[in-house]
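Run DNA 3'-5' helicase through structure prediction, thanks.
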Amino acid sequence: MLASLNYLDALNPEQRRAVEHGTGQERPGPLLVIAGAGSGKTNTLAHRVAHLMVNGADPRRILLMTFSRRAASEMSRRVERIAAQVMGKNSSLLTDALTWAGTFHGIGARLLREHAAQIGIDPAFTIHDREDSADLMNLVRHELGMSEAKSRFPTKGTCLAIYSRVVNAQGELETVLKETFPWCAMWAGELRTLFGAYVEAKQRQNVLDYDDLLLYWAGMMSDPGIAAAVSGKFDHVLVDEYQDTNRLQASVLLAMRPGGEGLTVVGDDAQSIYSFRAATVRNILDFPAAFTPAADIVTLDRNYRSTQPILSAANAVIDMASERFTKNLWTDRLSDAKPLLVTVRDEADQARYVVHKVLEAREGGMSLKNQAVLFRTSSHSGPLEIELTRRNIPFVKFGGLKFLDAAHIKDLLAILRWAENPRDRVAGFRVLQLLPGVGPGTAGKVLDAMATGPDPIWVLGEIPAPPRAAEGWTGLVDMLGRLSRKDAGWPLELGYARLWYEPLMEQAYEDAAIRMQDIMQLEQIAGGYPSRERFLTELTLDPPDATSDQSGVPHLDEDYLILSTIHSAKGQEWKAVHVLNVVDGCIPSDLGTGSTHELEEERRLLYVAMTRARDELNLIVPQRFFVTQQHKHGDKHLYAQRTRFIPRAMVPLFEDILWPPVTPAYIEGLSPAPVKMDIGAQMRGMWSK
Ligand code: ATP
Ligand code: MG
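Sure, done. The structure for DNA 3'-5' helicase is below.
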């Protein structure tokens, strides 16, 4: 038993209190861990899960929710490592059984399929990503004659944003319009009609969008019998990054654990950065009072991640926040190296500087994987991506273009989705129009006909070939029939889809050969999933990121640099971190300075970025940067101010440098070279004889 205590010895007393909370009790009460960045919240949560298992909790009855699938699998690995200290090799048997680890949306999808019969939905539902949802919103808008060109009605994207906001904030349409979309307030009546029709269309087609996964889950929990069955699956429910959940997620969670028994949430109000998705720190602040007796609270104030100079700079930035609950952090990781504030001329110099530093560090023995480049918006990394490619440095980009955003991958997935759910109109539209000769009109008619019968695929087989697409028609009907009958089984059936799609792709794209490699990659990924349904669900909810080698998926054995938006870097850490464009207009973003509320969120974003660094932090300040203002003036260069979040008084916390450095050679480069020859005299000389 002594050996089993080792893993607790590594913890500080507060962390240990959180890990051991309720040990031995049948129904431990609710627990909140609220603490700053790098204080070991996630680590504590992993220890708690391992500790529960060591003390006999059934891992299949532990529900662990994180903000991404990547975070969930990282957490499972940590749990396994800890459990291994106690139980040796057999620990992996336990962690393999930790089957309920994932995102709110992923878990929601699984629970809804399991309980579909009880809530009157078809378990074969397919899931629409944001783009599919916008497409469906557009179809419905069209059908209702609310086309934007005629009446300046909000765009499909804005309609979807409003709808999503109402649903996630659990608010009233009118209030959301007034507070967040005031320029659309005049359309309240039309929007209500549109959203009603949108909801009906989704139900007719048996599709759920992202928001529905939470909404239906919450709805399901309002029936006492179903609620008891769903929440009865779990003894423990644990949530990381609780500050970035929204009201709907909080209400689902409370419904899962009405008395808070076996419930643990951890978070940091200073890192709340998702309010654009209606996340609210109120969830974390209201948590203790949501239960009687109130939740236990553990706060942590020791940071184990960063050196003191890095932490001091990050603390100074967040100290200026107007509202804040967690305390300042301390660390015993002393160092003389201050973070750098690097002024460069422009984004090209910024890219060169980063490459220079990254290579320098690699020569010093720090692999690329220990270094990361963070930025406010995905487009900020453009010049750097070009420079990295030119210098042959492999990188992976998180939070940017997704693998699945590529048209050919979306095409192939639409085929699978349509076969899985032939009533999914957005998928049907996409697939039908792949056939030369089929336009939106024909596709619409075919889908209308299919919607009339109980067996849409059978109806499709009976429809006469559209005259202009006669050639490819049988092939399509045949392929879809095989896929819907699941003739070949998963994942081989993907081959049918590919065989049908390949010639069409060759006609449509000049670079079909390169795209074919992506499709091969997709087939490889597919092999990792037990069924078509799981594959489609998980890929839609949390798609893999695009990478530098154009093949979509990183070769995991290779060393590569991480490029990430700050949002996607949440919870992670690297030895060296470079933050791009630390200037007004970028951080804070121009879009984020509309209200104090938004400005405060931008400040927290910089805090999140800075606290990712363990040993080295470089904030880069280009004096000139390029912006694309889509709606107003087109592209232009801006002359930057430093970010307002690091005022002059804070600069001494940094090493303030210019790059390239001002050396005699640099100055010489700026001044005209001394005259060495007089060409004019030579020319004149030619004629002076
Ligand atoms: P964030 O707010 O960024 O999500 P966090 O609070 O979740 O951070 P962790 O990621 O859990 O912090 O931990 C930060 C680092 O500190 C990790 O490298 C972790 O291994 C280390 N750490 C945490 N607790 C301890 C401890 N008691 N002793 C030594 N190292 C620790
Ligand atoms: Mg964490």
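The radius of gyration is 28 Å.
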